[in-house]
Sequence to fold (228 residues):
Amino acid sequence: GAVVSQHPSWVICKSGTSVKIECRSLDFQATTMFWYRQFPKQSLMLMATSNEGSKATYEQGVEKDKFLINHASLTLSTLTVTSAHPEDSSFYICSVFRGISYEQYFGPGTRLTVT
Amino acid sequence: ILNVEQSPQSLHVQEGDSTNFTCSFPSSNFYALHWYRWETAKSPEALFVMTLNGDEKKKGRISATLNTKEGYSYLYIKGSQPEDSATYLCAPSDAGNNRKLIWGLGTSLAVNP
Fold:
C-alpha cells in the first residue's frame, strides 16, 4: 500500500478564520488525491478530487471558493477551509489514489472544530 | 450508484465467534466493490477490491464474496479476535466514474475477549 500522513490531526479555530490541512503521500507519487468529509453518523462524502498540477474537481454542492485545494507536488495536497463557520466543523480525511488497483490509501484524518 | 446499505449497523460478538456483514448496492452500471477496515484513531485500511460477479477474496481469517447481478457483497470473519474490532466499510464504484467511491455507513464490530 501507500503511507499517507495528514496534519494536523485536530484543530480548533474561531469562526471567520482559515485553516489549512495537509495531506502527504510518503512513499508514493500521487497524481490524484481525494478529500472527504464525514459528519457524525453519516458516511464519508467525497468533496473533491485533487489533481497534481491542475485544478481540483469539486463535487456538486461543495463550494470551491470556500474549500481551496492545492496539489502542487506529487506528494502534497492541501485543503484550506476559508472563513470557517461552525457548520464546517467535521472530520476531514484525504486519500491517495493508486490507479493500478483502483485502491485508495487514507490518511488518519483531521478533526476540525470551529467555535 | 446512489444508495449503499450495510447491515447490521453494529455487532457484538465473543472472541472465537465467526460473523458476517452485508453490503447492498444498486447493480446497474457497477464497476468495483471495495471493503475497508477502519479502526478508531487510525487510517481506513483497504481489505479487498472485487470487480467480477462471483469474485471471492481472502486475507487471513477475513473473506469476501461479490454478487453483481443482485447487488450485494458479504464480508466474513472466521474466529473473531479482539483486534478485529473496527468499523467495516464497503464502497462500490460505477463504470461512469470508477475512481469515485460511494460509501456505506459501515458495520461496527466489537469483539469481546
Q: What stands out?
A: The CA atoms of residues 32 and 99 of chain A lie 9 Å apart. The two ends of chain A are 37 Å apart (CA to CA). Chain A is about 0% helix and 55% strand.
